[in-house]
Amino acid sequence: MKSKTIESLVRANIAALQPYSTARDEYEGELGVFLDANESPFNNGYNRYPDPHQKQLKERLSEIKGVPSRNIFIGNGSDEAIDLVFRVFCEPRKDNVVAITPSYGMYKVAAAMNDVELREVELLENFELPTDELLAVADEHTKAIFLCSPNNPTGNSFPREEMLRLVDEFEGLVVVDEAYIDFAEVDSLKVEIFNRPNLIILQTLSKAWAMAGLRLGLALADERIVALFSQVKYPYNINIAAQQIVMQLLMYPIDEDLAEIKSQRQEVAEEIAKLPFVKHIYPSDANFLLVKVDDADAVYEHLIADKIIVRNRNRVKGCEGCLRITISLSGENDKLLESLKRYEK
Ligand SMILES: *Cc1c(COP(=O)(O)O)cnc(C)c1O
Predict the structure, then answer these.
(1) Could you tell me if the CB of 77 is within 6 A of ligand 1?
(2) Angle at the Cα of 301 (from 299 to 302), degrees rounded to 5?
(3) Segment 32-65, tens digit of pLDDT
(4) Domain shared by 196 and 58, yes or no
(5) Is 80 in the pocket of ligand 1 (CB under 6 A)?
(6) From ligand 1's centre to the CA of 85, what distance in Å?
(7) What spacing in Å lies between the alpha carbon of 24 and ligand 1's midpoint?
(8) Which of 249, 269, 295 is the last residue of a domain?
(9) Sheet holding 278-281: strands in order across?
(10) Whose CA is nearest to atom 15 of ligand 1?
(11) Which member of 48, 185, 223, 272 has the lowest number of beta carbons within 10 Å of its beta carbon?
(12) DSSP 8-class letter at 130
């Protein structure tokens, strides 16, 4: 970051915030007679408040991600971290953010909920990153640029050097959503947070780690950003059940599962390519394929009739004619392929 510091990007009311101090902030020991939080003494496993700092979970995630605990924020899904970018940095009706389109819908929703203008910049030919255009639409009130790589719903990753050029040339924050990074052939940008304080990496346990139902998203960033997010989040944002179950599930490596999804992605792409009504299959670094067909609505309805639900992106600008299809295991993928083979245009 050149001239703007993290401190200068923060909203004035947040900089002045006196954060809520929980009962458990004041005494950190594990054993004791806890008469400080008006909890019930009847122990059913969940009668105590959870650790607001998620210390144990952060230590485990630190080992897995190779990033110190102080650089890890844990949210109730990545959506919480996206919302916090707005709540911490964006003054409603004054600041703005910039995002690529087509991309994940939550950036727009979070902007609207926080009454912050979102300026969308269309991806270039072949869904390439419009780095210069993103820089050009940013002004002195632009607090953040949102990227998603691999991008949802287009499936492609953007070149590392291009994203880093954006981080280096833009004076505000660059948020890179890496929800699908574990399915990609390219590396995460997370190692770059140590010399680029304006870079925020979002990751999630919802996709590759198979824990969408537990709601756990991460922001990896400069420790000052993590501290700001931690002050503004709801104190007990990750409940005890989620913290415990995630700790258990993180014991099982996911390498084989990832290899299976990637090999299925290849097989499904090869089979879909043979269908006469398929016009294009976009290269994917994620656990889905974006497929352009002759009549997306008709194919979508045909699949629905077979109780197969895919995401119809036909009305998304830049994705006209496209369906986004999640890659599953061979049994379900075969049902998809078998249904598609029966489709008559
Ligand atoms: C699925 C997805 C997420 C994950 O959101 P969670 O709230 O962590 O479940 C984040 N970003 C993108 C682009 C996604 O597609």
Answers:
(1) yes
(2) 60
(3) 999 999 999 999 999 999 999 999 999 999 999 9
(4) yes
(5) no
(6) 15
(7) 30
(8) 249
(9) 278-281, 288-293, 322-326, 311-312
(10) 152
(11) 185
(12) -
